[in-house]
Q: What sequence folds into this?
């Protein structure tokens, strides 16, 4: 965790420095604000990760000689062949397009999104996957 926290701390310094340089080169307040806020967000993440790494102690990621098997291998079950995340994304896209074009697209997209979420949740309750 120390490496990740250090990377975010360096990112915080970098974005803040770029914000100052950007302001002196362009004089744009909005871009400078965005770069400053990005630096602040990187600082918050760096502080949290570095503070937590002191409390938790050394992890296998911090040891350069650690093996893959030293880490916790139980990350959960992820379906290797599921098309439902793609369907969720496509139906969300149709739902968002409904804001710009037509309300009936929102209704259709919301219905498709609910069906896709239902399909994702109950994917393995319909029997084994057949190739």
A:
């Amino acid at each position: 965790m120390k490496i990740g926290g250090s990377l975010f701390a360096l990112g915080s310094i970098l974005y803040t420095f770029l914000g100052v340089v950007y302001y002196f080169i362009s004089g744009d307040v909005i871009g400078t604000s965005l770069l400053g806020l990005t630096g602040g967000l990187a600082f918050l993440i760096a502080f949290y990760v570095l503070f937590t790494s002191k409390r938790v102690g050394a992890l296998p990621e911090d040891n350069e000689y650690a093996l893959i098997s030293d880490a916790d291998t139980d990350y959960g079950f992820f379906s290797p062949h599921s098309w439902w995340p793609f369907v969720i994304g496509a139906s969300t896209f149709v739902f968002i397009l409904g804001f710009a074009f037509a309300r009936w697209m929102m209704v259709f997209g919301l219905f498709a999104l609910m069906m896709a979420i239902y399909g994702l949740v109950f994917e393995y309750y319909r029997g084994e996957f057949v190739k």
User: Anything to note?
Assistant: Residues 29-56 form the longest helix (28 residues).
